Amino acid sequence: MVKLLVGVAVTLLLQTTSAITAKSLKLNSNVRIRTRQEWVAQPPSKRLPSLPRAVPNIVVYQTATDTCKSHAQCVFRVRYLQTYDIESRSMSDIAYNFLVGGDGAIYEGRGWKFHGDHNEEYNSKSLGIAFIGTFANAKPTKIQSMTFNKLVNKASKEKRLKRDYKLLIDKGSGDQLIALVKNWPHFAGEV
Question: For the packed helices 71-87 and 2-27, what is the interaxial angle rounded to 10 degrees?
Fold first, then answer.
């Protein structure tokens, strides 16, 4: 009986994941943005402040968790981060606007419309984008780098960034991620 129930649950999960994947690919052919509904986010605990349509900064972070290479692993990491931010750090929601998974997808955190809770000075004037993983010794994957750049291109095309935006990185984001981001266009320093 238990095996049957587990089998049914796995089958439903696989069917749901396939439908979600098809939906994401269809809606976002250049960059796959997994919506909050797709990773089954809990709603914010209180109303979030709005973010201006075009922001002057991107602040990059590492999540300081294990990396993820599959959709299921990435969903697990993102849900864990949201729960941790709300329950342990007393935040209203996950700290970041977007997260970059090792599966080649972007995970919507607070999204385009609401400011983050990642850096007090920059929350209201930036997109906080976190690479899922820990990058003290390991480099982000090429897939993560390409996916991040696709998101930045999308943000630029949709006028979500000021033309002369600054790319910043959190000082605690791991030597390998910092070294990578320092070579990208618009890099302006560490915060």
Answer: 90
